[in-house]
UniProtKB/TrEMBL annotation:
This is BCCT family transporter. It is a multi-pass membrane protein. Its main location: membrane. It comes from the Bacteria. The keyword rRNA-binding does not apply. GO terms for molecular function: transmembrane transporter activity. It holds the Pfam family BCCT. The lineage of its organism: Bacteria, Bacillati, Bacillota, Clostridia, Lachnospirales.
Length: 514
């Protein structure tokens, strides 16, 4: 841990001297240039980025699939090997946070409100896929695929990297909390040269792009839910107002330090749990939800290897290119921020506890969300209470379809209130973690036990919300920026492999010295 006197002296240093322009100014300029390009030439930029994205998914799709399955297997090997016994901190040191508070922050730091949106509607998309009919029935596979795409493989990215970054920060006691620094055991002096700088610029650019597009995914649902509650038509003004409210909430929280971040994460879990219990207990589909969920878990377990390795080489449906590869890529981009935060809050836990704990909280909570919210809508479809597929086909608005599904609940306004509150809390907790990580990333040196300055936190808190607000005025731009983040996942995946290999090398050397 950093000495308190040293910490006080460092706070008094000129902020500009401590800022790393490569990870602060350069990514900002790159993103602003991209956004300008999207706005000035939306059609041309869309065609170009779509071509690149299609090329990567079609020609290199197996790369993403191998990466996903490989990281999952490596994470389990690390957890149950001698490396898994390493304490992130001093040997015998107690965990910094209680198990529940730690788990709440782990779960909420990386999913934002996307989990609520996709839990409520993803089954509709799978029900319309030709591949679902090839496998069997909508009943069996529209409920199973969400669990696969949000299950162990994507969470293995977070879990493994959390252990890597936790080791780097709490055991190696590095001064630079950056992606490149995690590669130092293999890169050596190249970490401080062009390869290392390139890794850091790429990481921050991907972080900003992924962050901006995350808001574009679920914010329209939040706007639609609030509009339905107050009886007004959804508009861009309402969406922007909600973004400002979210910004205020997470800015106040992050400026208050980790104590408020932890409190907000716990509050988010309570709101999330109450919403799930409301739907499960009062929706009239309790038996169906539980039984379908149980079957879906069984289908995923039984067919896991096949689902993880299917490439559709004949391109009969291009399902893995449109879904599995897309999801693995999107989760890889989010790996720039969330695992750093997870590793930072894991001081005092063993590597094994971090990896298995991330699975325990992340996978189980995600499964419960999709089983309860997703199977409620699927249950309405299968029993004929509400045909979500036909409604969506007629209106073409997935967000309005979700609202209509919620309106089938008794006292549905309560569910809408819980949904709005939970989504705001999810966004706030996720962007708390991103703000903290981005702030630390902006310093040339940043030691364990030191927090970023208030001005740096405020800079990132505002920056993270400005891009989504600007992009609201151009739906094509939001799609383009999301595509940029997916494309960025291609090199990010290579860096992640390098980080994990560096961690294993350094951890083995640490064990030999112990």
């Amino acid at each position: 841990m950093i000495d308190k006197t040293d910490l006080k002296n460092r706070k008094g240093e000129n902020l500009l001297r401590r800022i790393d322009p490569a990870t602060t100014i350069v990514p900002l300029i790159v993103i602003l240039v991209l956004c300008t390009f999207f706005l000035v030439n939306p059609e041309g930029s869309t065609n170009l980025l779509s071509s690149v994205r299609t090329f990567l998914g079609d020609k290199f799709g197996v790369y993403y699939l191998m990466l996903g399955l490989g990281i999952l297997l490596v994470s389990l090997w690390i957890a149950f090997s001698d490396i898994g016994k390493i304490t992130l901190g001093k040997p015998g040191e107690k965990p910094q946070y209680g198990f529940w508070s730690w788990g709440a922050m782990v779960f909420t730091c990386g999913l934002a409100a996307d989990i609520l949106f996709y839990s409520l509607c993803e089954w509709i998309s799978y029900a319309q896929e030709a591949h679902t009919a090839e496998l069997g029935s909508v009943q069996d596979w529209a409920s199973a695929y969400p669990l696969f795409h949000w299950g162990p493989i994507p969470w293995s990215f977070y879990a493994t990297l959390a252990a890597c970054f936790g080791f780097m920060v709490h055991v190696r006691d590095v001064r630079k909390q950056k992606y490149s620094e995690a590669c130092r055991p293999i890169l050596g002096d190249w970490t401080d040269r062009f390869p290392g700088r390139l890794i850091d610029v790429l990481a921050v650019a991907a972080l900003i792009a992924g962050t901006a597009t995350t808001f574009s995914v679920a914010t329209p649902l939040l706007s639609a839910a609030l509009s339905s509650l107050v009886g007004v038509e959804s508009s861009k003004l309402i969406t922007i107002s909600l973004l400002v409210v979210i910004c205020i909430v997470y800015t106040v929280s992050v400026m208050g330090g980790m104590k408020k971040v932890s409190w907000l994460a716990n509050a988010c879990m309570w709101l999330f749990g109450i919403l799930l219990l409301f739907v499960l207990a009062l929706g009239g589909e309790t038996r169906y939800i539980i039984e379908t969920g149980f079957t879906a878990v069984g289908n995923v377990v039984q067919n896991f290897i096949g689902l993880s390795t299917w490439t559709d080489a004949g391109r009969t449906t291009s399902f893995p290119q449109n879904w599995t590869i897309f999801y693995w890529a999107y989760w890889l981009v989010w790996c720039v921020a969330s695992p750093f935060f997870m590793g930072g809050i894991s001081r005092g836990r063993t590597v094994k506890q971090v990896i298995l704990g991330a699975y325990a909280f992340g996978v189980s909570s995600t499964f419960i969300s999709f089983i309860v919210l997703g199977n409620y809508g699927l249950g309405l479809q299968m029993t004929g209470r509400f045909d979500g597929i036909v409604f969506y086909e007629s209106c073409g608005d997935l967000y309005q379809t979700v609202i209509e599904i919620i309106k089938t609940l008794p006292a549905h306004w309560i569910a809408l209130v819980l949904l709005v509150a939970a989504m705001i809390a999810f966004y706030a907790t996720s962007f708390d973690s991103i703000t903290l990580v981005a702030s630390a990333y902006s310093y040339r040196e940043f030691q364990d036990g030191e927090e970023a300055g208030g001005r740096m936190k405020l800079f990132w808190a505002i920056l993270l919300i400005l891009l989504p607000i600007a992009l609201i005025f151009s739906e094509g731009s939001m799609s383009n920026l999301q595509t940029v983040s997916i494309i960025a996942a291609f090199p990010i995946g290579m860096v992640i492999v390098l980080i994990i290999a560096s961690f294993i090398k350094e951890a083995k050397a640490y064990l030999e010295k112990s």
